[in-house]
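Q: Here's a chain of 252 amino acids. Please give me its 3D structure as tokens.
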Amino acid sequence: MFDLAGRVAIVTGGNGGIGLGMARGLARAGARVVVAARNEAKSKDAVKELEALGPGARAVTTDVTDEASVGRLIRATLDAFDRLDILVNNAGTNIRKPPHEVTLAEWREVLDTNLTSAYLGSHAAYPALKATGRGKIINVGSMMSILGAGFAPAYAASKSGIVQFTRAGASAWARDNIQVNAVLPGWIDTALTRRARQEIAGLHERVLQRTPAGRWGAIDDMEGIAVFLASPASDFVTGTAIPVDGGFSIQG
């Protein structure tokens, strides 16, 4: 039910943080993984790690905000593995400022990286996913898809958009047996959230206080949800947005 042997996955931003955690889970379950990211050195390190866990991996240097670059990613994957079964739209960025301080260029940078990239990836991957007859798309949102964030308005808007884009894709592509779901990570210990702790005083303590699990998440916590949503176990699950946040979002 959770076996991904013979399947091929692309993970954007898969060379670190949440993306690498999800890629690890897919590799352990038997999938060959393509890491799509801009930092070639980090991607090479990620590929070595994934090759030790699973049947194979490779890196394709990609700008997820550029349509031509995303198209090359899909073609490179098909050239290498002759199929594509799973797309994880994970690449993301954040600029932490209140709304009145965010410039238009910053707004566009965050929206393009977090939301437009998911459209570009899904749009380009659709024919290959349809051809398998069992495609899976996993879009990475955030707890800020459902909670307010005065310090990150562009990020929150982009991640809320991810949920609605997920629902649209799920509805449109169910007839092609493509399931489209979103994952909403909470406060996961990554390079991005470590920077947040430096920028937002008292954040670490507030997260621990609000999270029923009593800890920050680790990237390893993203492995299981990735495998579930990529595997036959979720064949009748589509259009969902599943929090992985230790209970943070259920608190009043």
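Q: Can you summarize the key feature?
A: The chain has a mean pLDDT of 96.
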